[in-house]
Amino acid sequence: MTGLLDDIKALTQLREAQGGKWDAIKPEYAARMRAQNRFHTGLDIARYTASIMRADMAAFDQDRSRYTQSLGCWHGFIGQQKMIAVKKHFGSTKRRYLYLSGWMVAALRSELGPLPDQSMHEKTAVAHLIEELYTFLKQADAWELNHLFRKLDDAQAAGDRDQVAALTREIDGFETHVVPIIADIDAGFGNAEATYLLAKQFILAGACCIQLENQVSDEKQCGHQDGKVTVPHEDFLAKINAVRYAFLELGVDDGVIVARTDSLGAGLTQKIAVTHRPGDLGDQYNGFLDGEEIQSANEIANGDVVIKQDGKLMRPKRLASGLYQFKPGSGEDRVVLDCITSLQNGADLLWIETEKPHVAQIAAMVERIREVVPDAKLVYNNSPSFNWTLNFRQQVFDAWQKEGKDVSRYDRARLMDAEFDATELGRLADEWTRDFQRHASRDAYVFHHLITLPTYHTAALSTDNLAKGYFGDEGMLAYVAGVQRQEIRQGIATVKHQDMAGSNIGDDHKEFFHGEAALKAGGKDNTMNQF
């Protein structure tokens, strides 16, 4: 990016070359508008954020304390406020991303109404949300720079050259709110061609990173529900290839693919893999199928399927649905094979969907993967589907019991109860929860930690609290004390909601376009001046 003064100089020369036709155009204003709209297309964003993500991945390989994080966002405003808060509290957006959850799109963005996480929502809704999120993030840039430009005007009017210089440096060094989005494409919404076409829409909207899972697209289930059905590796790899071709076609050469495996909790497959020789990938996949050995053709009933497994004839266990069942206890081995295969065939990051947040469990699988692919690293779902309090209290309980410590005062099944909050076990479990991301990155090579649907829960919780007070005895005090007063005291920018929605930006544009004739909204009678 060029500096503000350089841009003003270049625009002045451009205006002067027009022979007086552009005399009403002020180069300072045009330069400000350019600075407030750094990204012109979704592809500009995808290329910019891909380079950020690749640099973060390289930094993590050198130092696992430099992991990245995100929160799931179901609306552009939520994503915008998250990144404004990040800059406010931490001074930088570095290593903070957005996550776009298919679960929340299904639950909150479908024209069919709230839906379960089963790929029933409109496939284009995800691409539309990517575009919406980046529209709001770009507006956050314009909003923050607008305040800086107004301060610059005040400093220039006051003749404070030091302040003018300082503000110009701050504007030139401005850090954008635009950050990488990890976008959930579910199981690809169809065959590989459908996955490719949808991936292009994601990328054109700005996505630099696409997460793809190995479930059957028309039987897809939430990763934390039962009934998950996986596909043979060749089917999944075709979709990884489809996403890579989409990135390359659109010139995002360093786009990132996250390969998610649901095999740990998936006990079913839709079909038997194609195999050409013993030990190939299809044969390994089929080797996990549950069934019974048969000795002769007489044991084959009408409609039975028979395969060769470890040199023996085997009849796979087939359910009434036509699906085939995997051997009990084979989940971790299937996860390891899934991950190695994906990384060896074009994926950049792994996602292992687990049933609980347990560092040792995750690390054990990743160590096996890294024996074959030494730079393997994970995206991990810090899921609200886990009961974090109960899980970590039980983990502490189990650790103490293994150490021989007296745990007789604790009931393992009841550890969620509030009576355990202030106990030694409760406090230690909270410490383990607090440190989970740090320890999982250190021990299990988790590059990125996300929470899929936190803002779904925060919206419900805050709305419940407000409704309880406002429609109850507190009346208007519920909003004033619980919301507005907190916004004012905590410096939450939305307290000036007109400004946050772009009123001041619009006023400045009116002045750019109309000059002294501009009819502005932000005068003395604007009640926003009370804040």
UniProtKB/TrEMBL annotation:
SUPFAM superfamilies: Phosphoenolpyruvate/pyruvate domain (SSF51621). Transmembrane segments: none annotated. The keyword Lyase applies. CDD domains: ICL_PEPM. InterPro entries: ICL/PEPM, Isocitrate_lyase, Pyrv/PenolPyrv_kinase-like_dom, Pyrv_kinase-like_dom_sf. The keyword Lyase applies. GO terms for molecular function: isocitrate lyase activity. Keywords: Lyase, Metal-binding. It catalyses: D-threo-isocitrate = glyoxylate + succinate. Gene3D superfamilies: Phosphoenolpyruvate-binding domains. NCBIfam families: PRK06498.1 (NF005074). This is Isocitrate lyase. It comes from Vreelandella malpeensis. The lineage of its organism: Bacteria, Pseudomonadati, Pseudomonadota, Gammaproteobacteria, Oceanospirillales.
